[in-house]
Specification:
Layout lengths: L4 H22 L5 H8 L3 H22 L3 H4 L1 H20 L4 H29 L3 H27 L6 H16 L13 H4 L8 H26 L1 H9 L4 H21 L5 H25 L2 H26 L8 H30 L1 H36 L1
Membrane topology: Multi-pass membrane protein
Main location: membrane
Subcellular location: Cell membrane
């Protein structure tokens, strides 16, 4: 049965809005070395700029992640768009490290606010396609942001401003169109109480969350590493000095993740989880080999396989837990899921960034990659045990 035209338009708008937020989040990645050259700051400061974004995003998920369940979706989306527009203006006028930290702080809060409410709104409009769009749009957004900004930095004027002007215009148009969107949640009392920092996981979803958590943590830790340290790693390992390489690596990781989600959209969640864990192990092993052989092509092949594992594991995780939540629990569960994911996205990368000052980038990468491979192997073993248990129970009965 075909869905109404108004529902299709709403889904497209919400998907593009989510894509825009994540494109903005990855846009600074290809510019980090230009900021370093322009402002003369150390790698430790670069790690701080990355970390401020991640922790601000986490704060938003903890504080306002459930707010749209009480106020409605549109007011919260509008507030997130206004905050992101302010962040773009700070990037455009950035003259010092303090401006960059301020921009990333505001951007992180806006993105954290947006990811939970937009994910919940997508589920409100379509419970079948909502998880698919929620999985694909962020990855496509990060690919567009990283690659688009890399191309503009390499070939267009105003490399440190033009991307942000384009994003500012996009967010302004979205803020205007938003009020044509149908409200999918009726306001209810309890908005102030919902601002207390909390992780709300419905009882019926907790067992499924614990099962998929090791794989989800490994996948998001890979994403954090790529967005923070991969451009520096490929320069150190291969000697490449192109502005495009860092953005291209992020784009390959996220774009292949999006493509794998689309290709596997009709498969069972447990199958996607097992495939995601297997591909992460293989892809990360190839990336480590590429680092030690200084092979740029192998670097991209390993990244492609890793991205496929990221995408299939991400969709499998969402498909496993989100249908278990009731309508008034969706934003809260989405917020909790993203808090755990972004902790994995930020903390390991911050640790790795600081360890590079002691051990160097390549030895740190070896240890980081080995730990993530072990996590993915452990997740795969747990998933296979879970699959074998019902079979064994059936045989005994």
């Amino acid at each position: 049965m075909s869905r109404p035209a108004s529902t299709r338009v709403s889904l497209i708008f919400l998907a593009i809005t989510l894509l825009g937020f994540l494109a903005a989040s990855s846009a600074p990645t290809p510019l980090y070395h230009l900021y370093q050259e322009h402002m003369q700051f150390s790698p430790a400061i670069l790690t701080l700029i990355f970390g401020v974004y991640a922790f601000s995003l986490l704060a938003a998920l903890l504080v306002v992640g459930s707010l749209s369940d009480y106020l409605g979706r549109r007011p919260v989306i509008f507030a997130a768009l206004l905050l992101n527009m302010l962040a773009m203006l700070l990037f455009i006028n950035a003259e010092s490290v303090a401006w960059l930290i301020g921009a990333r702080l505001i951007q992180g809060f806006a993105t954290g606010m947006a990811t939970s409410v937009l994910g919940a709104a997508l589920l409100d409009f379509d419970r079948q396609q909502g998880p698919l769009i929620t999985s694909v749009a962020p990855l496509l957004g990060m690919a567009c942001g990283a690659m688009g900004c890399g191309l503009l930095a390499e070939f267009a004027p105003m490399p440190l401003q033009l991307t942000y002007w384009i994003l500012l215009a996009l967010f302004a148009l979205q803020a205007i169109y938003l009020w044509r969107l149908a409200e999918s949640v009726s306001p209810q009392p309890g908005a102030w109480r919902s601002l207390r920092p909390t992780l709300h996981v419905p009882v019926q979803a907790r067992r499924a969350l614990w099962l998929i958590l090791p794989l989800d943590l490994a996948a998001w830790a890979v994403g954090g590493f790529y967005l923070s340290l991969a451009p520096s790693l490929v320069r150190a390992a291969t000697g490449s000095t192109s502005n495009l390489i860092g953005g291209a690596l992020v784009a390959v990781l996220t774009l292949t993740g999006a493509l794998s989600i689309y290709a596997l959209r009709n498969r069972a969640a447990d199958m996607m989880l097992r495939l995601g864990a297997s591909l992460l192990v293989l892809g990360l092993a190839l990336v480590l080999i590429a680092v030690h052989t200084a092979s740029l092509p192998l670097f991209f092949i390993g990244t492609l396989i890793t991205g496929s594992g990221f995408g299939s594991g991400f969709l499998g995780a969402l498909r496993s837990i989100m249908p278990l939540a009731l309508p008034h629990e969706r934003a809260g569960l989405m917020s909790a899921f993203y808090v755990l994911s972004y902790l994995a996205f930020s903390l390991p990368s911050l640790l790795a960034g600081n360890l590079t000052r002691i051990y160097g980038l390549i030895p740190t990468t070896n240890g980081f990659g080995a730990v993530l491979i072990l996590m993915a192997v452990g997740a795969l073993a747990g998933l296979l045990r879970q699959t074998a248990k019902p079979l064994a129970d059936g045989l005994r009965s």
